[in-house]
Design goal:
Helix content is 37%, strand content 20%. It has 14 helices and 16 strands. It has helices spanning 16-25, 39-43, 70-74, 99-113, 122-137, 150-163, 181-192, 203-210, 216-237, 250-255, 290-299, 304-307, 327-347, 399-412; strands spanning 5-11, 29-34, 48-55, 60-61, 64-65, 79-82, 141-145, 167-173, 196-201, 241-245, 280-282, 355-359, 365-369, 372-385, 393-394, 416-421. Strands 9-8-7-10-11 form a five-stranded parallel beta sheet, sandwiched between helices. Helix 10 links the parallel strand 10 and strand 11 (280-282). It starts with a strand and ends in a 13-residue tail after the last strand. Residues 263-270 have low confidence and may be disordered. Bound molecules: xanthosine-5'-monophosphate (XMP). Residues 220, 311, 313-315, 355, 389, 426, 430-432 line the site of xanthosine-5'-monophosphate.
Length: 434
């Protein structure tokens, strides 16, 4: 293995992620471990250069104050103690607020005491993961649902590098993809990377099941369940699969709750397949933060469009074609959304705004076209910025650009005769309309 490792022991801190990110920003790889890690588990970590005991407010678990066992301090690896109510003196009372101060506080420990090397970079990460994946998988086969989103695309590219054609990718087009998306998956993975890719156009199945269904939660359920069904059918056609690839990333794990975290948010990546189809999981991105996943994609040669893609909900355009989905309105939505994306990209906003899209409601209003009455749907523009999607502020899109987008959508997209701009922050509005 190429990278040195700093282990962060979570002794009740609310800032484990920030600490891990800061250590990595200094060029040293770090991972977060639960307070009850055993000496054997710690001893098995390759290239372990130092341990940071990261205490804090959440230091009571099941009614007991938690401590790092004496063995942690006696194991021969340098230890730094932060805000810990244990027996040992603290090196830092609490994490400094500014990143510069935190880096300055960590540097002497990492480089003078632990003698860690600043060798954490994507080239080494990829090399290490390829080695680990080959060790884990051997000559067995891995199945991966490849949506074309950032995480599944990077997992696919990494697995192709590690095991080549023993990776079996399945791309299910549920008919609710944005314009050009499935085509891009095929171009990159089939044509460029020569992956084993099964493309399933299940548009008719999904739209059939969704016919007449207006309730958003019902729509989501149908899309989710049908997705599993289609994927399962494809999986059953493939013989001798032992592993399932997953695009789980570090925030999914850290935010699902280390043992001391107060808020436990379950994450949605895993599961869904029937019990008789149990695979071992392969999750090579599970220690990466989102920006690192993107950097990994770049290192693996994936196109920028794919790697810097804005978030897109699993149910896709299904929750933006508001109310009961019809094919003609879905088509109008897809075309209008493509124009919005193109104009955002051309103006430079695409790279700056966190999420931007069109929704089309299921009612029409009166308009005039070529001197005649023209009933059409409105297209609603939403453009928001956020850090964690829990709250969001709107992007103030320049009027000139809004006018241009309005002109193009109303002139180029059949069925749309008005364009509206959503000014609502979250809260009170959610990011999606449904
Ligand atoms: P809301 O609308 O809840 O959206 O403010 C927050 C973020 O989550 C995305 N989103 C979804 N993602 N499945 C997903 O994978 C869903 O059902 C879903 N609903 C919303 C939304 O696009 C935004 O980024």
């Amino acid at each position: 293995m190429k990278q040195d490792l700093i282990a962060i022991l979570d002794l009740g801190s609310e800032d484990n992620s920030r600490l891990a990110r800061t250590v990595r920003a200094l060029g040293v790889y770090s991972e977060i471990y639960n307070f009850d890690i055993t000496a054997e588990e710690l001893g098995a970590l390759e290239n372990l250069k130092g341990i940071i005991v990261n205490g804090g407010k959440n230091n009571v678990v099941d009614g007991e104050v938690i401590y790092a066992g004496d063995w942690v301090y006696d194991c021969g690896i340098p230890v730094m103690v932060i805000d810990h109510a244990g027996k040992k003196a603290q090196d830092i009372d609490k994490l400094p607020e500014s990143d510069e101060e935190l880096q300055a506080a960590l540097k002497p420990f990492l480089f003078d005491v632990c003698k860690a090397e600043a060798n954490w970079n994507m080239k080494n990460f990829v090399a290490d993961q390829v080695e680990l994946l080959r060790r884990q998988i051997g000559d067995k086969k891995v199945l991966l649902a490849l949506s074309g989103g950032v995480d599944s695309s990077v997992v696919a590219a990494l697995l192709i590098k590690a095991i080549g054609n023993n990776l079996y990718c399945v791309h299910v087009n549920h008919g609710l993809m944005r314009k050009g998306e499935s085509e891009m998956v095929i171009e990159v993975f089939n044509n460029q990377l020569k992956a084993n890719l099964t493309y399933v156009d299940a548009t008719d199945r999904f739209l059939g099941k969704l016919e007449g269904v207006a309730d958003p939660e019902q729509k989501r359920k149908i899309i989710g369940a049908e997705f599993i069904r289609v994927f399962e059918e494809e999986a059953r056609k493939l013989e001798g699969i032992d592993f399932l690839g997953q695009g789980t990333i570090y925030p999914d794990i850290v935010e699902s709750g280390t043992k001391t975290a107060k808020v436990v948010k379950s994450h949605h990546n895993v599961g869904g397949l029937p019990e008789d189809m149990q695979f071992e999981l392969v999750e090579p991105l599970k220690y990466l933060f989102k920006d690192e996943v993107r950097a990994c994609g770049v290192e693996l040669g994936l196109p920028a469009e794919m790697v810097y893609r804005q978030p897109f909900p699993g149910p896709g355009l299904g929750v933006r074609c508001l109310g009961a989905i019809t094919r003609d309105r879905l088509h109008a939505l897809r075309e209008a959304d493509a124009i919005l994306r193109e104009e955002f990209d051309n103006s430079g906003l695409g790279a700056k705004v966190w999420q931007y899209f069109i929704s089309v409601p299921d009612f029409t209003s009166v308009g005039v076209k070529d001197g005649a009455r023209y009933m059409g749907w409105p297209a609603i523009i939403r453009a928001v910025n956020t850090i964690d999607a829990m709250t969001a502020a709107i992007e103030e899109v320049p009027y000139e650009l809004l006018h241009k987008i309005t002109y193009r959508i109303t002139h180029e997209v059949e069925g749309i005769n008005r364009v509206l701009y959503d000014l609502t922050p979250k809260p009170i509005g959610t990011i999606e309309w449904e």
